[in-house]
Amino acid sequence: MLFQKRSERLFIWIFFPLMLMMPLFLDGNIFYINKLSSILIFALFVMSLDYLVGRCGLITLGHAMFYGLGGYIFYIIAPQNEAVNFWVYTFYICVISAAIALIVGFLVLRTSGIYMIMITLAIAQMFFYYFSDSMEFGGIDGVFLYLKPETSFLGIKMFDLDNPTHFYYLCLFSLFNTLVFFKVIMASKFGRVVDATRENPERTTALGYNVFVFRLASYVIASALGAYAGYLFSMQYGFVNPSMLSWQTSGTALVMLILGGMGSIYGAILGTFAYEGLHYFFEHLTEHWMLFMGSAIILMVILLKKGIAGYIEKLLEKRS
Amino acid sequence: MSQVMIETEGLCKHWGGLKALDDISLTFADKELHSIVGPNGAGKSTLLNLLCGTYKPTSGRILHKNEPIDSIKPYAFARRGIGRSFQKTNIYPSATCLENCAIAAQRYMGGSFNFLKPRNKEPVLLHIAEEALHKVGLGHRKDTVAAAVSYGEQRQLEIAMVLATSPCVLLLDEPMAGMGHEESALIIELLKQLKKEYCIVLVEHDMDAVFELSDLITVMVNGQHLVTGTVDAVREDPRVKEAYLGQGDEVY
Ligand SMILES: Nc1ncnc2c1ncn2[C@@H]1O[C@H](COP(=O)(O)OP(=O)(O)OP(=O)(O)O)[C@@H](O)[C@H]1O
Ligand SMILES: [Mg+2]
Fold it and tell me: What sequence ranges are listed for the domain ABC transporter (chain B) (predicted)?
């Protein structure tokens, strides 16, 4: 079975049906639907980071670079005054960002631990400054994308991206597929070696595996999906700006995944929702929301050692 | 004498000023068990680390089936069939015993870049992994997480993992250390069987086991080669007695 843990199955059976019905509850309230869409998009991004950090043991502070690149690549390759096909451009963006990840990963993965954190950060900052200083990319303000792609596939028009509810469903669909995708590769023979390289790289080398190649493959996969999330984000409000690839974005994603439970993949969704929920709650309570938010996160991380996902697992174990 | 599997020529390994290995030239033949003994810090583990590619020699050459292999990548040693067990238990603690062996077996079974095939749906591979567990007497533990089995059983698992890679050369670093009496006896029986087919290099402190199993024994002291010979020859050699007694280390 793909979803082996009970907590995982429970989560999926509650979360996705609930999210499917959400637009009905919200009754066309566009503000909240858009808000939810952006949370789903970011959850997808956090999920790709969780695969790298939690499953491959590769800690990066530069993952947002691909989030931003997803948007900028779309801006660069899409024609200005013509609606492109969503699926075709999904393919382009994943391939181009995978190619970039291949080169970056080749450099970055020669290091590990704290050095890898520093180098990923440095490379991401290089891209950040490149885009914030380029006039052709609108500098710090970024650029606008005026036309949304159309989504016909084999002649069937699937989503109308100008409609927030349609866009919401596209995000939900993407998130679900990403979750299944990661679960499939984690359960595969490739996933077996990835688990081995995380847990004991020396022994894995001694058994004859080229650890570097498996890490590189994982890095490329996670980066391409991170870029896909950025591509979705840029489409939502029709703009791209350098803050997407700032180190704060990477840092926030890391906090979310620690909150959700590292390595569990579905925990990324929990973490993103918990973080955004706290944010929303404190923001409306006080102007010093950052202070309270920080304290709440520190408390949660200390109390829930394995994140929210780990806590749910423990609860279910006790009951059975 | 049977075919030479591994040969070292003037192998040296220096750690800063320390000569952990100094000019070691040895040959290891197929279908023979060749033991390396010597007091603590003699350089036995260092020798194995060089033979399996974990460290690169400071100077000297290593030949496998007459081809030099000292410049190949560390992972390439295992692909040539040079399997190695570790003195310090080196397993995957959070995986089950069966999974530990399955990781080992998958290397030569192939398909490690298969992103879709579920890892638990390959009977042949799992069968090989299970076989390896049975050989070392761990069959009943296959579904137990490796961290949860006893220290002695982890030592057995360590050997099972090497067997699961289907090697042609076995480099075993103190495989019996930390095992109970029964398990040691089982491993000694197993090694007797294995040496009929494989080239085995055994580093071991348990002298009874060494004398019982070895075709050849090499004694090392302070990184230097002292003597190589048959069990009887080494037992009678005055230099060996002196080396051990002089260091006040282990007396046999
Ligand atoms: N990675 C290393 N860095 C520095 N010195 C090392 C390293 N590995 C081993 N040594 C040194 O090399 C010498 C030989 O060590 P080695 O582990 O090969 O001995 P050994 O014969 O296996 O001893 P034991 O019986 O205790 O296992 C020791 O003095 C050790 O301190
Ligand atoms: Mg040793």
Answer: 6-247
Q: Domain residues of chain A, as ranges?
A: 6-319
Give the count of alpha carbons within 13 A of A61, CB side only.
15
**CA B10 to centroid of ligand 2, rounded, Å:** 20
Atom of ligand 1 nearest to the CA of B48: 18
The ipTM assigned to this model is 0.88
Total number of domains constituting chain B = 2
Cβ contacts of residue A110 below 8 Å, gap of 6+?
Answer: A212
Indicate if B159 and B171 belong to the same structural domain.
no
Of residues A95, A76, A93, A88, the one with CA closest to residue A145 = A76
Q: What tens digit of pLDDT does each residue of B15-43 get?
A: 988 889 999 999 999 899 999 999 888 99
- Among B54, B106, B170, most A C-beta atoms within 10 A, so best to mutate, is B106
Q: How far is the CA of B66 from the centre of ligand 1 (A)?
A: 28
Final residue of a structural domain among B166, B186, B212: B166
Does this model's pTM top 0.90? My answer is yes
Q: For residue B248, what pLDDT band results from cuts at 50, 70 and 90?
A: very low
Q: Which chain B residues are within 8 Å of A190, Cβ to Cβ?
A: 112-115
Residue A225 has pLDDT above 50, yes or no: yes
Interface probe, candidates B115, B122, B170, chain A, greatest A C-beta count within 10 A: B115
Q: Given B166, B182, B213, which residue is the final one in a domain?
A: B166
Tens-place pLDDT, residues B32-86: 999 999 988 899 999 999 999 889 999 999 999 989 998 899 999 999 999 999 9
CB distance A207–B76 less than 8 Å? no
Q: Ligand 1 atom closest to Cα of B174?
A: 27
Q: Which of B93, B116, B161 is facing A184, going by the closest CB pair?
A: B116
pLDDT band for position B251 (50/70/90)? very low
Same-domain status, B120 and B156: yes
Per the structure, the complete domain to which residue B98 belongs is given by 90-166
A209–chain B Cβ distance below 8 A for any pair = yes
